[in-house]
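Milestone 3.1: sequence recovery, worked example.
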Protein backbone atom coordinates (compact mmCIF):
# COMPACT_ATOMS: atom_id res chain seq x y z
CA UNK A 1 0.00 0.00 0.00
CA UNK A 2 2.83 2.40 0.83
CA UNK A 3 4.52 1.67 -2.50
CA UNK A 4 1.24 2.39 -4.24
CA UNK A 5 1.00 5.75 -2.47
CA UNK A 6 4.52 6.60 -3.65
CA UNK A 7 3.54 5.87 -7.23
CA UNK A 8 -0.01 7.19 -7.41
CA UNK A 9 -0.67 9.36 -4.35
CA UNK A 10 -2.96 8.95 -1.34
CA UNK A 11 -6.27 9.61 -3.12
CA UNK A 12 -5.71 7.12 -5.94
CA UNK A 13 -4.22 4.49 -3.64
CA UNK A 14 -7.22 4.71 -1.29
CA UNK A 15 -9.58 4.36 -4.24
CA UNK A 16 -7.80 1.29 -5.63
CA UNK A 17 -7.48 -0.38 -2.23
CA UNK A 18 -11.07 0.54 -1.34
CA UNK A 19 -9.94 1.95 1.99
CA UNK A 20 -10.68 5.19 3.78
CA UNK A 21 -8.41 8.05 2.78
CA UNK A 22 -7.51 8.66 6.43
CA UNK A 23 -6.30 5.08 6.82
CA UNK A 24 -3.99 5.26 3.82
CA UNK A 25 -2.79 8.72 4.85
CA UNK A 26 -1.98 7.37 8.33
CA UNK A 27 0.16 4.63 6.78
CA UNK A 28 1.93 7.19 4.66
CA UNK A 29 2.77 9.29 7.73
CA UNK A 30 4.44 6.23 9.28
CA UNK A 31 6.29 5.19 6.15
CA UNK A 32 9.72 5.30 7.82
CA UNK A 33 8.56 3.17 10.76
CA UNK A 34 6.93 0.68 8.42
CA UNK A 35 10.07 0.23 6.33
CA UNK A 36 12.32 -0.04 9.40
CA UNK A 37 10.06 -2.51 11.27
CA UNK A 38 11.95 -5.71 12.11
CA UNK A 39 9.11 -7.74 13.64
CA UNK A 40 7.16 -10.61 12.10
CA UNK A 41 5.59 -9.92 8.73
CA UNK A 42 2.14 -11.00 9.96
CA UNK A 43 2.14 -8.55 12.87
CA UNK A 44 -0.88 -6.25 12.81
CA UNK A 45 0.85 -3.38 14.60
CA UNK A 46 4.23 -1.71 14.99
CA UNK A 47 4.31 -2.68 18.69
CA UNK A 48 4.90 -0.24 21.50
CA UNK A 49 1.21 0.49 22.01
CA UNK A 50 -0.49 0.47 25.38
CA UNK A 51 -0.09 2.41 28.56
CA UNK A 52 3.44 3.60 29.28
CA UNK A 53 5.13 2.59 32.52
CA UNK A 54 5.23 5.47 34.99
CA UNK A 55 8.08 4.21 37.18
CA UNK A 56 11.46 5.23 35.74
CA UNK A 57 13.33 1.92 36.27
CA UNK A 58 10.90 -0.89 35.50
CA UNK A 59 13.59 -3.40 34.36
CA UNK A 60 15.24 -3.21 37.78
CA UNK A 61 11.92 -3.83 39.54
CA UNK A 62 11.05 -6.81 37.33
CA UNK A 63 14.53 -8.28 37.84
CA UNK A 64 14.12 -7.89 41.60
CA UNK A 65 10.74 -9.64 41.50
CA UNK A 66 12.10 -12.56 39.48
CA UNK A 67 15.15 -12.88 41.74
CA UNK A 68 12.96 -13.06 44.84
CA UNK A 69 10.80 -15.81 43.36
CA UNK A 70 13.83 -17.63 41.96
CA UNK A 71 15.04 -17.92 45.56
CA UNK A 72 11.53 -19.07 46.53
CA UNK A 73 11.01 -16.20 48.95
CA UNK A 74 7.76 -14.33 49.60
CA UNK A 75 7.22 -11.56 47.03
CA UNK A 76 4.74 -9.06 48.47
CA UNK A 77 3.37 -5.72 47.33
CA UNK A 78 5.04 -4.03 50.29
CA UNK A 79 8.34 -5.67 49.40
CA UNK A 80 8.18 -4.34 45.84
CA UNK A 81 7.28 -0.88 47.14
CA UNK A 82 10.25 -0.94 49.52
CA UNK A 83 12.58 -1.82 46.64
CA UNK A 84 11.16 1.00 44.51
CA UNK A 85 11.68 3.38 47.44
CA UNK A 86 15.29 2.24 47.78
CA UNK A 87 16.22 2.86 44.13
CA UNK A 88 14.00 5.88 43.35
CA UNK A 89 13.25 7.62 46.65
CA UNK A 90 12.51 11.05 45.17
CA UNK A 91 10.15 9.65 42.54
CA UNK A 92 8.18 7.64 45.12
CA UNK A 93 7.86 10.65 47.44
CA UNK A 94 6.67 12.85 44.58
CA UNK A 95 4.19 10.17 43.43
CA UNK A 96 2.71 9.88 46.93
CA UNK A 97 2.30 13.65 47.18
CA UNK A 98 0.58 13.90 43.80
CA UNK A 99 -1.95 11.14 44.51
CA UNK A 100 -4.94 11.86 46.70
CA UNK A 101 -5.07 8.29 48.07
CA UNK A 102 -1.32 8.26 48.72
CA UNK A 103 0.00 4.81 49.63
CA UNK A 104 -3.09 3.06 48.25
CA UNK A 105 -2.42 4.51 44.80
CA UNK A 106 1.14 3.18 44.93
CA UNK A 107 -0.13 -0.25 45.96
CA UNK A 108 -2.56 -0.37 43.02
CA UNK A 109 0.20 0.74 40.66
CA UNK A 110 2.50 -2.05 41.90
CA UNK A 111 -0.27 -4.65 41.54
CA UNK A 112 -0.96 -3.60 37.94
CA UNK A 113 2.78 -3.68 37.22
CA UNK A 114 3.05 -7.23 38.56
CA UNK A 115 0.11 -8.44 36.45
CA UNK A 116 1.51 -6.85 33.27
CA UNK A 117 4.79 -8.70 33.75
CA UNK A 118 3.35 -12.17 34.24
CA UNK A 119 2.82 -12.38 38.00
CA UNK A 120 -0.41 -13.44 39.70
CA UNK A 121 -1.62 -13.17 43.28
CA UNK A 122 -1.54 -16.64 44.85
CA UNK A 123 -1.86 -18.25 48.26
CA UNK A 124 1.63 -19.08 49.62
CA UNK A 125 2.56 -22.75 49.80
CA UNK A 126 4.81 -23.82 52.64
CA UNK A 127 7.82 -25.97 51.82
CA UNK A 128 10.60 -27.35 54.00
CA UNK A 129 12.98 -27.74 51.07
CA UNK A 130 13.79 -25.64 48.03
CA UNK A 131 13.22 -26.79 44.46
CA UNK A 132 16.96 -27.40 44.01
CA UNK A 133 17.05 -29.63 47.10
CA UNK A 134 14.01 -31.58 45.91
CA UNK A 135 15.60 -32.09 42.47
CA UNK A 136 18.75 -33.39 44.14
CA UNK A 137 16.73 -35.78 46.32
CA UNK A 138 14.88 -37.08 43.28
CA UNK A 139 18.14 -37.66 41.39
CA UNK A 140 19.66 -39.51 44.36
CA UNK A 141 16.56 -41.67 44.71
CA UNK A 142 16.60 -42.52 40.99
CA UNK A 143 20.24 -43.64 41.18
CA UNK A 144 19.58 -45.75 44.27
CA UNK A 145 16.43 -47.26 42.73
CA UNK A 146 18.14 -48.38 39.54
CA UNK A 147 21.06 -49.88 41.46
CA UNK A 148 18.62 -52.08 43.37
CA UNK A 149 16.08 -52.88 40.65
CA UNK A 150 18.15 -52.82 37.46
CA UNK A 151 17.35 -56.52 36.86
CA UNK A 152 13.68 -55.75 36.22
CA UNK A 153 12.46 -54.73 32.80
CA UNK A 154 9.81 -52.05 32.11
CA UNK A 155 7.10 -54.74 31.97
CA UNK A 156 7.85 -55.71 35.58
CA UNK A 157 7.73 -52.25 37.17
CA UNK A 158 4.46 -50.76 38.37
CA UNK A 159 3.64 -47.30 39.66
CA UNK A 160 0.57 -47.42 41.92
CA UNK A 161 -1.34 -44.44 43.27
CA UNK A 162 -4.48 -44.27 45.40
CA UNK A 163 -6.91 -41.43 44.79
CA UNK A 164 -9.86 -40.68 47.06
CA UNK A 165 -13.18 -39.91 45.36
CA UNK A 166 -15.97 -38.21 47.32
CA UNK A 167 -19.54 -38.37 46.06
CA UNK A 168 -23.08 -37.53 47.23
CA UNK A 169 -21.68 -34.29 48.58
CA UNK A 170 -24.27 -31.81 49.90
CA UNK A 171 -23.93 -28.27 48.50
CA UNK A 172 -21.73 -25.90 50.46
CA UNK A 173 -24.45 -23.23 50.45
CA UNK A 174 -28.09 -23.04 49.40
CA UNK A 175 -31.05 -20.65 49.44
CA UNK A 176 -33.62 -20.92 52.23
CA UNK A 177 -36.38 -18.75 53.60
CA UNK A 178 -35.51 -16.13 56.19
CA UNK A 179 -36.26 -17.04 59.81
CA UNK A 180 -36.89 -20.24 61.72
CA UNK A 181 -39.70 -21.47 59.49
CA UNK A 182 -37.13 -22.62 56.94
CA UNK A 183 -34.00 -23.81 58.74
CA UNK A 184 -32.16 -24.86 55.55
CA UNK A 185 -32.45 -28.55 56.41
CA UNK A 186 -32.13 -31.19 53.70
CA UNK A 187 -34.00 -34.42 54.35
CA UNK A 188 -32.29 -37.81 54.19
CA UNK A 189 -28.78 -36.44 53.90
CA UNK A 190 -25.61 -36.63 55.95
CA UNK A 191 -22.86 -34.11 56.43
CA UNK A 192 -20.38 -36.90 55.68
CA UNK A 193 -19.90 -37.56 51.98
CA UNK A 194 -19.73 -40.93 50.30
CA UNK A 195 -16.20 -42.06 49.60
CA UNK A 196 -14.44 -44.62 47.50
CA UNK A 197 -10.84 -45.19 46.53
CA UNK A 198 -9.53 -45.54 42.98
CA UNK A 199 -6.28 -47.48 42.69
CA UNK A 200 -4.45 -46.36 39.53
CA UNK A 201 -1.62 -48.49 38.17
CA UNK A 202 0.69 -47.98 35.21
CA UNK A 203 3.65 -50.04 34.05
CA UNK A 204 7.03 -48.57 33.24
CA UNK A 205 6.45 -49.39 29.56
CA UNK A 206 3.41 -47.10 29.51
CA UNK A 207 0.69 -49.76 29.77
CA UNK A 208 -2.23 -48.63 31.96
CA UNK A 209 -3.88 -51.35 34.02
CA UNK A 210 -7.62 -51.46 34.80
CA UNK A 211 -8.66 -49.26 37.70
CA UNK A 212 -9.46 -50.92 41.04
CA UNK A 213 -12.37 -49.16 42.75
CA UNK A 214 -12.70 -49.82 46.48
CA UNK A 215 -16.15 -49.05 47.95
CA UNK A 216 -16.64 -49.61 51.66
CA UNK A 217 -13.55 -51.79 51.59
CA UNK A 218 -13.28 -54.45 54.28
CA UNK A 219 -10.42 -56.88 54.80
CA UNK A 220 -11.59 -60.31 53.65
CA UNK A 221 -14.92 -58.93 52.46
CA UNK A 222 -16.74 -60.34 49.44
CA UNK A 223 -17.57 -58.55 46.22
CA UNK A 224 -21.27 -57.91 45.65
CA UNK A 225 -21.44 -59.20 42.08
CA UNK A 226 -25.05 -58.10 41.67
CA UNK A 227 -23.88 -54.47 41.54
CA UNK A 228 -21.40 -54.96 38.69
CA UNK A 229 -23.92 -54.00 36.01
CA UNK A 230 -24.11 -50.52 37.50
CA UNK A 231 -20.40 -49.84 37.02
CA UNK A 232 -18.39 -49.39 33.80
CA UNK A 233 -16.88 -52.57 32.43
CA UNK A 234 -13.15 -53.13 32.13
CA UNK A 235 -12.28 -52.32 35.74
CA UNK A 236 -12.37 -54.09 39.10
CA UNK A 237 -14.58 -53.29 42.09
CA UNK A 238 -14.35 -54.36 45.71
Amino acid sequence: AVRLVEDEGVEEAARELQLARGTVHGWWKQVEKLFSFTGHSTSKSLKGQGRREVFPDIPAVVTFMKDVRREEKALTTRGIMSFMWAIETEWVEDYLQRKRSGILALERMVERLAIRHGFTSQKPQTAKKSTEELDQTRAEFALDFWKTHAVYGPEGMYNVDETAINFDMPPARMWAGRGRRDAARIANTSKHTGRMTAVLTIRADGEKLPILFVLRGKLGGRIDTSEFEEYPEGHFYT
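The chain has a mean pLDDT of 79. DSSP finds nine helices and four strands in the chain.
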